[in-house]
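Q: Hi! Curious about what Regulatory protein RecX looks like structurally. Here's the sequence.
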Amino acid sequence: MAFESGKATRGGGGDQPSPRDDAIRLLARREYSRYELESRLSAKGHAHGDVAACLDALAEQGLQSDERFAEHFVRSRIQRGQGPRKVRAELDQRGVGRDTVGRALEDAEVDWYQLAAETLARRFSDPGDAPKERAKRERFLAGRGFDFDQLKYALSHAWDANELD
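A: Let's find out. The predicted structure is below.
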């Protein structure tokens, strides 16, 4: 390695950060799943073997954790009013294992039925008079990732709290 302008350079010239440098830079901003980091580091041109070794080391040091990523992800999606089906699908897309996803959803200790009702009440002021209006509310909740039972509960209880005001 040669040194130019205070940085170590590799044989072909040009300053290219190591996979670890790039990974640390990414992790400094937010949590990433291993799969996301692997994709981003590979896209930057790092060799697959170097990326895998780097990610193994980061995981051993506790700097990258799919469990921690899933926990943060679930909490952020709950705050957005998203249901468990959508959260699970998004974590699956990010390469987080099913067991890790299941634990993160369980550890969140959220009442998904109540969350569906609160989300619906924030978006709509009433259950709707016409079947077309009720169908619109059902599609809204289904699109947010709530299952059929949570949807039905929300439709019948979303405006209960408003009566207490």
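A: A fun detail: Residues 66-79 form the longest helix (14 residues).
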